[in-house]
């Protein structure tokens, strides 16, 4: 019996396990497709301040905006809200004897991380989406060109 509740809905992006293995690095596959976790404080976006949109590394679906990213000092990028309510899905996770809420990409079902709720996060939503950097790809905002409108 699994400790995770799996989604029963079909995803817009579906690939076989072999196709995922061919399109992702072994480290990406372990986190995105096998619900692994990257080491704390080692991810490429943990301390990033670049403005833009964070997309799913597996399928490219836009998930989080940089303006919802905050310093939680937990070792992984933290956001207080997804880009839109339907961009992620929530799965009950009871692995390791804990009761948590797993966050997956709603487009391809890839594991992103977990969401935690409670006062003390000092965010507008009282939530912390603790997301693996390796699950994301930052699409930086285009710098505005002051000469473009001239």
UniProtKB/TrEMBL annotation:
Xref: Gene3D superfamilies: Peptide methionine sulfoxide reductase
This protein's name: peptide-methionine (R)-S-oxide reductase
Cofactor(s) it depends on: Zn(2+)
Highest taxon of the lineage: Bacteria
GO molecular function, one term: peptide-methionine (R)-S-oxide reductase activity
Keywords of this entry: Metal-binding, Oxidoreductase, Zinc
Catalytic reaction annotation: L-methionyl-[protein] + [thioredoxin]-disulfide + H2O = L-methionyl-(R)-S-oxide-[protein] + [thioredoxin]-dithiol
GO aspect biological process, one term: protein repair
Residues covered by the MsrB domain: 17-141
Region (Disordered): 1-21
UniProt keyword Oxidoreductase, yes or no: yes
EC number(s) stated in the UniProt entry for this protein: 1.8.4.12
Species in which this protein is naturally found: Humibacillus xanthopallidus
GO cellular component terms given for this protein: cytoplasm
UniProt cross-references to SUPFAM superfamilies, sorted A to Z: Mss4-like
